[in-house]
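Hypothesis: this fold can be encoded by more than one sequence.
Test: take the structure tokens below, design a sequence, compare later.
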């Protein structure tokens, strides 16, 4: 439910379902998973993987809020998106898209749910080290995206030109550090959950 409900912000503003709804769904589901897991945690990976998702979700929402307030172009774009969505009929027509986003966000957080079910005693030291490295990669990806968003927004504001081509900082190495960072982070997140899932299946007496 923490994944499915936030995209319903799209009923207010169509674009919110894939912006604030995205960030809130990821953060709230990670928080819910942590709160629903008994302490001490079953393995040392869980809190760090969850913290990465919480950081991503809250950071994204904060960035989107600030960027919208600073950028007239983004404000105009949001009005254009909402205008097109409204012209397609009443707001209830958005429900299929909103629900599909909710299930997508649930899929993004499923690796964490798998990790929360994994006992440290049930996993080999090599697999545990692999999961640790994957979580490090996840954090690195989210931080790269965060730095990219900050540098791009700051540089465009500094030059007072929203179409200014940013080539400094991480943009000197990557054309799209925000997208590249997310690709790396979500891939590491998925692989970490996959390792957990394989060990859960391996050690399960029955399949459910």
């Amino acid at each position: 439910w923490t994944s499915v409900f936030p995209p319903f912000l799209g009923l207010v503003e169509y674009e919110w379902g894939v912006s604030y709804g995205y960030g809130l769904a990821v953060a709230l589901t990670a928080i819910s998973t942590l709160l629903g897991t008994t302490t001490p945690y079953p393995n040392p990976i869980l809190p760090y993987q969850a913290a990465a998702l919480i950081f991503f979700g809250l950071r994204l929402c904060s960035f989107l809020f600030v960027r919208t307030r600073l950028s007239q172009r983004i404000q105009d774009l949001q009005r254009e998106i909402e205008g097109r969505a409204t012209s397609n009929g009443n707001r209830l027509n958005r429900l299929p898209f909103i629900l599909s986003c909710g299930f997508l966000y649930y899929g993004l957080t499923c690796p964490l749910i798998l990790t929360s079910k994994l006992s440290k005693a049930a996993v080999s030291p090599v697999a545990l080290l692999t999961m640790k490295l994957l979580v490090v990669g996840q954090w690195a990806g989210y931080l790269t995206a965060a730095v990219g968003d900050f540098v791009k927004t700051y540089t465009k504001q500094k030059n007072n030109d929203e179409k200014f081509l940013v080539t400094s900082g991480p943009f000197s190495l990557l054309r799209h550090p925000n997208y590249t960072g997310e690709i790396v982070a979500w891939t590491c997140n998925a692989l970490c959950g996959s390792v957990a899932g394989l060990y859960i299946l391996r050690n399960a007496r029955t399949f459910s």
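The chain has a mean pLDDT of 91. The two ends are 21 Å apart (CA to CA).
Hypothesis status: open.
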